[in-house]
């Protein structure tokens, strides 16, 4: 008997009835590992929530989902609650949203059923003193490991991981994946791993389902599906997973638009940056890479003028605009998008001119002008990031700063946004500083790269030179993690 049986599962909205998912069918035996891949909106997370009995209000499931013989579809929540934690558990994508920001980690572990916090933290490679901290005092990788510890507290038979490493840098991602591999093997836990990263799915799961528009379009052994895909959508997904070849000419050595000399930045007792010397020439496309907490975002904030250095000098010549990681958080949800775009325009243009220029900016990033009067929540994640780029371009920048601008996007949308960025940078002759944890993206988009670790600049030079002959062990580890 299988541990998990999904039989003709379908999810629809209540009224009017609209199909969101299915019908889909699959089984999972005790201890097996299954990957689910697909773009945003393909139904991956909806499948996971259906199994957990956590569907939001306004949607309903039909068909059958049994976990260890217990029916989930149509069951009372009181019954399903007895299954969560001991029979099945889930690790969510965004740990900062899943953890209580006002409760210390140790107390949250205790609420999850952990009796020995030190042992639970050790199992996920965290020190016992983490228990005394609040979630905001942890890095992204540490928070995600805490969630794994909480999910495994009841020794569940089934663990569902929904995009647990999406926004993590390569080395941190590797650490979290090692933890998940180890704890599921140690306890014989079956695993469903949801991601849009094909490299991760190849590593974690011997079997994979490919989902598209709420349906399973292909399934089978992971290596076979990825090496010899039968469905056209799977082939497109695999092609999109490779960073696009962006035919950008190398920047010529020119005037320095950004210069940092002996820059340090201290937050409380923590040195975010320490003795940074960096020169960025006009037209250069600089990739800034490093692990969580390495100082990448702190560096961008100094260049953008959002913060001041504790010591040293930061000299920036020209207009600066920034594209943030989370467009949902950086766009005002109460403003129509044309007004958000117009905020960045220099001078004091008339309302008609602002709308006209906003429409032109939207067209430049591939969105129709009739998008002007819609609100941010009416767009997909990739579309919102295009709106953020349009807003930055309306500021008529000389220097464009991008902070993890594609890290939360699925593969095909990421490729589209990268091509868009490359096109506008080339067309406008912009200087780019691109922060990312994805070295493969840097290799295709940036002609130079700077590697940061714990606030120090380890190396800076042409991308291919650093990639082929890294001078530091840390850079070698980053490259190795990226090539897994």
UniProtKB/TrEMBL annotation:
All residue ranges annotated as the ABC transporter domain in the record: 4-238, 258-479
Molecular function per GO: ATP binding; ATP hydrolysis activity
Domain of life according to the entry: Bacteria
Keyword Lipid metabolism part of the UniProt annotation: no
Pfam families per record: ABC_tran, oligo_HPY
An individual GO BP term: transmembrane transport
PROSITE patterns: ABC_TRANSPORTER_1, ABC_TRANSPORTER_2
UniProt keyword list: ATP-binding, Nucleotide-binding, Transport
Family according to the record: Belongs to the ABC transporter superfamily.
UniProt-recorded name of the protein: ABC transporter ATP-binding protein
């Amino acid at each position: 008997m299988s541990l998990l049986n999904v039989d003709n599962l379908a999810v629809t909205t209540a009224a009017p009835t609209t199909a969101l998912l299915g019908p889909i069918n699959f089984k999972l035996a005790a201890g097996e590992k299954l990957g689910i891949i697909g773009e945003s909106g393909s139904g991956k997370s909806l499948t996971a929530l259906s199994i957990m009995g956590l569907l939001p209000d306004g949607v309903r499931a039909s068909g059958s989902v049994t976990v260890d013989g217990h029916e989930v579809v149509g069951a009372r929540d009181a019954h399903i609650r007895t299954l969560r934690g001991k029979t099945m558990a889930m690790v969510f994508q965004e740990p900062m949203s899943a953890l209580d920001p006002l409760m210390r980690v140790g107390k949250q572990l205790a609420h999850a059923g952990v009796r020995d916090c030190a042992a639970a933290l050790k199992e996920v490679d965290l020190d016992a003193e983490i228990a005394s901290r609040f979630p905001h005092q942890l890095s992204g990788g540490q928070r995600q490991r805490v969630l794994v510890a909480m999910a495994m507290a009841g020794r569940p038979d089934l663990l569902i991981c929904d995009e647990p490493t999406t926004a993590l840098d390569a080395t941190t991602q590797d650490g979290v994946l090692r933890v998940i591999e180890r704890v599921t093997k140690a306890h014989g836990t079956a695993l469903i791993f949801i991601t849009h990263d094909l490299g991760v799915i190849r590593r974690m799961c011997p079997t994979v389902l490919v989902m598209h528009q709420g349906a399973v379009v292909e399934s089978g052994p992971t290596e076979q599906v990825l090496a010899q895909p039968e469905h056209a959508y799977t082939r497109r997904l695999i092609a999109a997973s490779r960073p696009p070849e962006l035919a950008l000419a190398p920047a010529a050595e020119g005037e320095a638009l950004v210069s940092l000399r002996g820059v340090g930045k201290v937050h409380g007792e923590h040195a975010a940056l320490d003795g940074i010397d960096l020169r960025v020439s006009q037209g250069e496309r600089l990739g800034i890479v490093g692990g969580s907490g390495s100082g990448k975002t702190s560096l961008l904030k100094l260049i953008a003028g959002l913060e001041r250095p504790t010591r040293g000098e930061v000299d920036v010549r020209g207009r600066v605009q920034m594209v943030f990681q989370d467009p949902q958080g950086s766009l005002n949800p109460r403003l129509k998008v044309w007004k958000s775009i117009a905020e960045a325009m220099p001078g004091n243009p008339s309302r008609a001119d602002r709308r006209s220029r906003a429409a032109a900016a939207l067209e430049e990033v591939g969105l129709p002008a009739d998008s002007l009067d819609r609100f941010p929540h009416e767009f997909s994640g990739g579309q919102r990031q295009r709106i953020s780029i349009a807003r930055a371009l309306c500021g008529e920048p000389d220097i464009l700063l991008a902070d993890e601008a594609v890290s939360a996007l699925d593969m095909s949308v990421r490729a589209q946004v990268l091509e868009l960025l490359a096109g506008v940078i080339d067309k406008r002759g912009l200087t780019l500083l691109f922060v990312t944890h994805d070295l493969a993206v840097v290799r295709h988009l940036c002609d130079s790269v700077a590697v940061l670790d714990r606030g120090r600049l380890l190396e800076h030079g042409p991308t291919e030179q650093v990639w082929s002959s890294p001078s530091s062990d840390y850079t070698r580890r980053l490259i190795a993690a990226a090539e897994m």
